[in-house]
Amino acid sequence: MARILITGGEVLSATGSQAADVLVDGDEIAALVTPGHFASMAATCERVIDAKGKYVLPGGVDVHTHMELPFGGTAASDTFETGTIAAAFGGTTSIIDFAVQRTGEDVHDGLAAWHQKADGNCAIDYGFHQIIGGVDDAALKAMADLTKNEGVTSFKLFMAYPGVFYSDDGQILRAMQTASELGATIMMHAENGPAIDVLVAQALARGETDPRYHSLTRPVEMEEEATHRAIMLAKVARAPLYIVHMSAREAVEAVARARDMGANVFGETCPQYLYLSLEEHLSKAGFAGAAYVCSTPLRSREEGHQDALWRALRTNDLSIVSTDHCPFCMKDQKELGIGNFSKIPNGIGSVEHRLDLLYQGVVTGQLSLARWVELASTTPARMFGLYPRKGVLAPGSDADIVVYDPKGVTDISVKTHHMNMDHSAYEGIHVDGRVEMVLSRGRVVIEGNAFTGAVGHGRFLRRGLSQYLL
Fold first, then answer.
1. Spatial separation of the C-alpha atoms in residues 21 and 49, rounded to whole Å
2. Is the pLDDT assigned to residue 1 strictly greater than 70?
3. Are residues 51 and 76 in the same domain?
4. What integer is the mean pLDDT of 123-143?
5. CA distance 274 to 367
6. Is there a single domain that holds both residue 158 and residue 288?
7. Is 298 strand, coil or helix?
8. Secondary structure string (H, E, C) spanning 316-360
9. Is residue 70 domain-resident?
10. pLDDT for residue 470 is more than 90
11. Which residues contact 213 (CB under 8 A, 6 or more apart)?
């Protein structure tokens, strides 16, 4: 097995940093040692990487992606091949995607379909959550099988999208009770879907068809109310709860109150909610705002939602930043919603930019280096049964490593990104920092501007239970 020695860097973890050299032996990290300790070993290594002046950190773990997701008459434009290559360019070395079961379909068939999509096509390691689109006796039985036998230990439910993914309160309670018995994790899309459908129909009847009405018909109250209701149902079921893609200050405050009372509740946000807004992006002239349609929707900067999310990341009221990567091109995809905002495929492509956009929070003083690593790598791995295999640089852990240059620059643009999209939601954003090199299980897969890995290198991750269960 090949050995690689990374020397001279500042090794980062969720608890701090240290000057250390990192020895990689095959797929795993063999040792972290005092700088220069292994100097005599350099000649026996396949490669010595000079990381002087650079940060060395565990590869990013993005626990919310949607590669090839069918949605609204089309499908997400990134395949598992293009999406995982783009993720690697951005310093992410593990993703957890969502296998889909719609109402009336079989859970096992949904998981099998996603295995077929991903198997042999991924450049980095990958796992699956399971979407449960119809909670019935068969689905509850499948939850037990997937948890015990398939390495799929988390299940996503929807309080939105009636007729497609929606579960009512009784179904949600039954699924939460089952998850509590299994030690599995429930992930919740918390928006009041039936009420939103009424607001959408009323807006369209008034001739309000532009993209910005996507947000105006999914008001803060719809997220706040559903978040509170999900927390109460989880309390009754004695189940942990993970709420995905949080965008509204008031919803995050509901999570904070629950956590302050000792509830085992966790919130996730995404880069789009930290950087983009209703006024500046979703309300662009003509149909340009369609590029920014996602659910939950972008919120008003004037109302302070973005500042509140950054604050919640600092205080740990929000625990993880994932991407909800669900890319669609403008041409022939987002354009399906011309004249009717409700037909615009929901999603933004971010999998390549998460680490950089979060690092800009370090540059501006919003986050510490340790918190950067915690949000992007360590806590996701712990939350979803991958730690310490992933999420940390330690002997015996997978050699998923990012060498990050704090003096480098990243200018985000459709001209330079690697996602399969004809636009960038983050066009023109400048980041003071740059991913210089990425190792996936000991293999250099990104070096500078080049992909040096291989499609098929990525392995399926059979996950254990969350380390945050009580």
1. 10
2. no
3. no
4. 96
5. 13
6. yes
7. coil
8. CCCCEECCCECCCCCCCCHHHHCCCHHHCCCCECCCCCHHHHHHH
9. yes
10. no
11. 203, 341
| Residue 121 sits in the same domain as residue 13 | no
What whole-number distance in Å separates Cα of residue 401 and Cα of residue 13?
Answer: 12
Where does residue 171 rank: exposed (0-12), middle (13-18), buried (19+ CB within 10 A)? middle
- 8 A C-beta contact, residue 27 and residue 399: yes
Residue 105: give the domain boundaries.
59-383
Single-letter amino acid code for the residue at 223: E
Backbone angles phi, psi at 295, to 5 degrees: -130, 130
Whether residues 179 and 283 share a domain: the answer is yes
Q: Are residues 403 and 258 in the same domain?
A: no
Residue 296, both tokens: 């939950």
What number of CA atoms fall less than 13 Å from residue 283's CA on the CB side?
9
pLDDT(42) > 90: no
DSSP string, 415-429: TT--SS-SS-TTTT-
Pairing mode, strands 74-75 and 70-71: antiparallel
Question: What is the pairing mode between strands 28-33 and 21-25?
Answer: antiparallel
The answer to whether residue 106 is domain-embedded is yes
Cβ atoms of 101 and 129 within 8 Å: the answer is no
Least confident of 144-148, 164-168, 171-175, 275-279: 164-168
Q: Do 191 and 267 belong to one domain? A: yes
pLDDT per residue over 368-390, tens digit each?
999 999 999 999 999 999 999 99
Query: The CATH number of the domain where 127 resides is what?
Result: 3.20.20.140
Q: What is the SS3 assignment for 34?
A: coil
**3-state helix, strand and coil shares in percent for the chain, rounded to the nearest 5:** 35, 20, 45
Same domain, 39 and 109: no
Cβ neighbours, 10 Å, residue 12:
24
| The overall pTM is greater than 0.90 | yes
In sequence order, what E strands does 108-226 have? Answer: 125-131, 154-158, 185-189
Asked if residues 290 and 211 have their Cβ atoms less than 8 Å apart, the reply is yes
